């Protein structure tokens, strides 16, 4: 808050230090002789006036610091360390001058689902072994709902799909970024007997000679004593 700096009910008077001039004369002895200079009055800061009794709250400064809440419109697409300026919301100016500006610097909270690179978004999607081998349609989250993505048969881990225009809006209005979907093929860790038999048949049809690993201590001991 800004005020005059005087206690309510009191008035200003001529500065007793500078006699209302707003400046004082200072004399100094130098090697060149006696030098006289003028400086701004330290008591009235050049105004030529002082208070009969200064404000007890601001000590005559005329300003008081208070915390206030302001509503700020966050620009769509804003990124870390970008800022906006709120004109006139900064510190009060000296000697009745205009207030400064308030700069709001943004910190964007990371997402637990997406990664951001500029205006582009990266997303990792897990699919099963059968989906990767046979192909499928999967639901992919975006910033504006879900879309369906076709997974071609034979898709490998690391395959990248680009969804154009599904990224973040450019903060300066230059369109939208893209959403890049990276596929991760998940290998099953627990198989039923039926699933195991199917995979054995698949390996046999593919010409693969699989040496099945023992799954428990008894199997390991049995293979050890048999010399397998």
In short:
The protein has 228 residues and is of the alpha+beta class.
Task: Provide an overview of this structure.
Its main location: cytoplasm. This is Chaperone protein DnaJ. Its cofactor is Zn(2+). Keywords: Chaperone, Cytoplasm, DNA replication, Metal-binding, Repeat, Stress response, Zinc, Zinc-finger. One of its GO terms (biological process) is protein refolding. The protein is an alpha+beta fold. It folds into three domains: about 60 residues, Heat shock protein DnaJ, cysteine-rich domain (Chaperone, DNAj Protein, Chain A); about 45 residues, no CATH class; about 120 residues, Urease metallochaperone UreE, N-terminal domain (HSP40/DNAj peptide-binding domain), CATH 2.60.260. Helix content is about 15%, strand content about 30%. The strands form five sheets. The chain has a four-stranded mixed beta sheet with strand order 7-8-12-11. A hairpin with a 2-residue loop joins strand 9 and strand 10. The termini are far apart.
Structural class: alpha+beta
Distance between the termini: 87 Å
Counted up, domains total 3
> What's the CATH class of the largest domain, please?
Mainly Beta
Largest sheet: 4 strands, mixed
Give the topology string: H per helix, E per strand. Answer: EEEEEEEEHEEEEHH
Helical segment tally? Answer: 3
Using only CA atoms, what is the Rg? 38 Å
GO molecular function: heat shock protein binding; unfolded protein binding; zinc ion binding
Zinc finger (CR-type): 1-67
Domain CR-type: 1-67
Protein name: Chaperone protein DnaJ
């Amino acid at each position: 808050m800004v005020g005059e700096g005087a206690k309510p009910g009191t008035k200003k008077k001529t500065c007793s230090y500078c006699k209302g001039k707003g400046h004082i004369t200072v004399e100094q002895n130098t090697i060149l002789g006696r030098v006289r200079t003028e400086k701004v009055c330290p008591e009235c800061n050049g105004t030529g006036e002082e208070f009969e009794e200064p404000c007890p709250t601001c000590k005559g400064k005329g300003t008081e610091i208070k915390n206030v809440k302001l509503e700020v419109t966050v620009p769509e697409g804003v990124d870390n360390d970008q800022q906006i300026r709120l004109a006139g919301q900064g510190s009060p100016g000296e000697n009745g001058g205009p207030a400064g500006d308030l700069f709001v610097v943004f910190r964007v909270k990371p997402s637990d689902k997406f990664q951001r690179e500029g205006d582009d978004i990266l997303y990792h999607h897990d699919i099963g072994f059968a989906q990767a081998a046979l192909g499928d349609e999967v639901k992919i989250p975006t910033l504006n709902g879900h879309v369906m993505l076709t997974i071609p048969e034979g898709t490998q881990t690391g395959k990248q799909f680009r969804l154009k225009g599904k990224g973040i809006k450019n903060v300066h209005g230059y369109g939208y970024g893209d959403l890049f979907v990276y596929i991760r093929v998940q290998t099953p860790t627990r198989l039923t007997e039926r699933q195991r038999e199917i995979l054995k048949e698949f390996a046999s049809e593919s010409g693969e000679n699989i040496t099945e690993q023992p799954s428990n201590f008894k199997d390991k001991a049995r293979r050890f004593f048999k010399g397998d």
